[in-house]
């Protein structure tokens, strides 16, 4: 009886200590921060907000970031699980030696085999919706053939030579592979845990991680709690528990002591903080130089957008100084090119001038003197009134006589179908606002402006045809047939025609680096032939249909490529050639020539920079090591491993 009472008292004492945040006799250090909710779960290879958690907080890769205010984006790249590397002279084969002291949160060692299995898993057809463009796997040898199903995942260009040596083979030289190995899609996942429960392995309570913090709870719409990983080896701050709070929490919650940092979201908040004696001392500010904010033409099929002089006139009729001063309240800097003055790239780029006289002249040359004869355009926004859109509409009316109406649409539709979609058939001639960032610290300095090349700079009729082909390619996943040679006949005929067109492109394209990319083995026709041979030897009707579907997708994919290449403007083709030359240089050299492909993209005026945002926040004076996230999804906070909370 006495033993039972003692046990009950012990349980009560332990519970009290846990509730009070006392661990091992010491007060637990807890930090609460605002964060994005993670509706898609904690799968690191998908492109959504939680990939920021994968970058050094719950997962780690071969390389990662450390804070460095002097570097682009406020961070620099350092080895994390990698100990050293060797690279071939052609920069296609990278061999990494791994640290031997890194562990998973369950105590298992982190080995080269974890990376090999994880990347093969990502590349397999099982992950059909993998956003390959968001990670380094797109550059691995045979990736696209593996993803299409034409090759076995074992043919992917990655191999564990032993437990702590990893070889990566690339299809083209990548001087910036280390930078790519920092991103969320470059981290390994724990094989046994994934295979035991493929649908739910990532849930708190199940997930096994290799980063400094483990997710222990997640309440959608409310918060996520991270605690120190006891098996983590490496640099880490003194914070025991991190509470990430969802739901747009900000200054009010910070003032109430519910948050240890909060972003400033409005001009009113900014002015209030600066006027408050206490908050003004806790105020921080940084320029988001990896962003540009502005507008882009809608992604519909109205031929008005093909008129470059109209596009130029609109871009030159905007008083950016007035916008930043009167509308944005000093929380932004005027920007008339993709990179600001004071940066290596920006200092070499030409600005879009604010010149009403020139804009009016261009508008007349476009066929719309004083705006006459031009239909009413549409500016799409989301979430209620938008002062920036309202300002632009007013500028175009006052300075050019152009009528633009504002149309508010639902947020999911806006971002998914109007801002970042390939094409939006329902979109009327007009615009959307766009915040265009770098995705990560690689030599792709475009900040999204390469969409001018990918989705805009060829005639509207071609854009519409491309959209139809993309719909057809998707439809191949669901087609019935492929059981007879007769079903293959149209595909074989298209293969012959497309092969001739492809050879013509390869022979005529002057940029060797572009040709190298076009001819990465296995080539599209080699993939097609491989699928055809597999079809001939297939045992079941299901296998036959599947190979036929995959072959159809390969054919349509090549149709899309040739349609795009053959109709791209000469200016954009030249820009694209410079893009290849940039990518095939080390970071410190690439940044010196990036303007040579960014300038032609800017000069097409499909995507127009207007201002450079500032990140502003307040922060608990006792909190140190808070790192601003300046890439996609920013501004926000990440790299939580460096957080320290002073007593």
Task: Outline the structure in words.
The protein is α+β, with helices and mostly antiparallel strands. The chain folds into three domains: 18-249 and 620-645, Periplasmic binding protein-like II (D-Maltodextrin-Binding Protein, domain 2, 3-Layer(aba) Sandwich); 291-457 and 608-614, Dipeptide-binding Protein, domain 3, CATH 3.10.105; 467-567, no CATH class. Helices cover 37% and strands 18% of the residues. The protein is built from 22 helices and 24 strands. The strands form seven sheets. Strands 13, 14, 15, 16, 17, 18, 19 and 20 form an eight-stranded mixed beta sheet that branches. A four-stranded mixed beta sheet has the order 3-12-11-10, with no helix packed on it. The protein has a four-stranded antiparallel beta sheet with strand order 6-7-9-8, with helices on one face. Helix 12 links the parallel strand 17 (377-381) and strand 18. Helix 9 packs antiparallel against helix 11, helix 16 (485-508) packs parallel to helix 19 (541-567) and helix 20 (570-583) packs antiparallel against helix 21. The longest helix is centred in the C-terminal third of the chain and has 27 residues, at 541-567.
